Amino acid sequence: MTAAITSSVGALRQWFPTLAHNVHLAACSIAPRSAAMEQALNQMLDDLGRPGFWAACEEQLWRARRGFANLIGAHVDQIAVLPSASVAAFQASAAMRWRRRRALVTGTAEFPGLAHVWLARQSCGARVRWCGSRAGQVSTSDYVKAITPRTALVSAPAVSYRDAIRLDVARIAEAAHAAGAKLFVDAYQAAGVMPVNVDKMGCDYLVTGTGKYLLGLPGLAFLYVRDPSGPAPTLTGRFGRTAPNAFDAMTLDFPSNARRLETGTPSAAATYAAVTGLDMISQLDPVAIRQHTQRLIAAAAVRLAERGETVRLASTAEEQGAHLALVEPHAEAMTAWLAHRGLTVAPRASVVRLAMHAYTTIDDIDALCAAIESYRTRSRTRQRTGASR
Ligand SMILES: Cc1ncc(COP(=O)(O)O)c(C=O)c1O
To answer: Which of 8, 24, 219, 296 could, after both became Cys, cross-link 267 (CB 3.0–4.6 A)?
Structure first.
């Protein structure tokens, strides 16, 4: 562990009372419950009983936008709050014309919800170009090779949702821009657990949601837009107006900032929780979190392989995200078994994802390894190879 995290990990775990009796290795799917989140939700309920609830919600919304802008090195005017990453993908691509440039480059490791938005764009003239293997393995150079002068939009995850493949987004941005295309980055599996800076990445759009590594609740997504000027979106709502509180049904105007892409009333609970999550993350050093999780991933990979388990591991630590994919054909069954023993992990298709965060300790990894060993003994299943990707 790095000094910054080591010195504070005990204190940090106090933020999450459930960690006293639960091993939470699932932040790639859902954040652990925190005392601050409970306080925020109680605050929301208190506000609900007072006059001015909507004003209080709007204040929270501003704080969430500002907190996220600070986290990724953006200006608050470049942030739109939306209900999901899929809606954000829709908004980011809505103004594209798909005439001379028709190609939309995406990869087989794309989160399906976003890939579906890209596929639906084919009805507007886009042509989806896939990179990566059918099995969902994708690399930075797969993207770079797929980009041509016909490419209008490239969509790449900063870290892939299933196998935690971390792409070199800056390299993809360079290739996209050299071809005259825009880059959309899905940072859902990166923001909150490693440094994410939109200028270093060079992306044109970046999306993430609040309910995973950002330590909030599901129900809210942030869309960063490098240049928010441009054609008006066709999906809109009251929050996309210059003055949302004017309540003027007959005027459709758009602010010059990214709020022009916002739609209707966002989830109040997710907004309050987002503020506390971002607040917690802002107290931590993203570089220290990254180093801490890299060490835990390396330790977990060795210990699991020693027990004959198969994990998908990138060839370098740099190319590995914050979780480890343990190959397990009955991922749901293993997850349920572990849950009964106080370990929360995140199944997806034929892998069990083991996600690290600032609060994760080597004791968590040991507890996981012991529980998996016991599961194998009792269920008489064992991975045969112990090999890595
Ligand atoms: C990489 C990634 N992108 C996007 C999402 C969510 O997308 P949406 O908010 O559209 O459901 C998730 C997880 O749910 C994810 O892991």
So the answer is: 219
Q: Which one, of 181, 184, 194, 22, lies nearest residue 13 by Cα?
A: 22
pLDDT digits (tens, 9 = 90+) for 270-303: 999 999 999 999 999 999 999 999 999 999 999 9
User: For 96-116, b where at least 16 C-beta lie within 10 A, e where not — what string?
Assistant: bebeebbbbbbbbbbbeebbe
Same fold, 3-33+285-379 and 52-282: no
Convert the pLDDT of each residue in 41-77 to its tens digit: 999 999 999 999 999 999 999 999 999 999 999 999 9
CATH architecture of the domain covering 52-282: 3-Layer(aba) Sandwich (3.40)
Please give the helix or strand (H or E) that residue 65 lies within, else none: helix 53-72
Count Cβ atoms below 10 Å from residue 211 Cβ, excluding itself: 21
Identify the residue whose tokens are 């992306």: 203
Measured N-to-C along each axis, helices 362-379 and 331-340 cross at an angle, to the nearest 10 degrees, of 110
Among 138, 161, 206, 210, say which to mutate for ligand 1: greatest number of ligand atoms within 8 Å of CB.
161
pTM above threshold 0.90: yes
| Mean pLDDT in residue range 228-236 | 91
Distance of CA 208 to the CA centre of its chain: 5
Question: What torsion do the CA atoms of 142, 147, 148, 151 make, to the nearest 10 degrees?
Answer: 150
For the chain, the domains span 3-33+285-379, 52-282
Distance from the CA of 89 to the center of ligand 1, in angstroms? 11
Closest residue by Cα to residue 30 from 159, 275, 183, 215: 215
By most ligand atoms within 8 Å of CB, the mutation choice from 188, 206, 220 for ligand 1 is: 188
- E strand segments, 303-350: 311-312, 323-327, 343-344, 346-348
Distance 208 CA to ligand 1 centre (A): 8
* Tokens read off for 131: 């990179």
Angle at 266 between CA 264 and CA 272, to 5 degrees: 160
Crossing angle, helix 53-72 and helix 268-282, to 10 degrees? 40
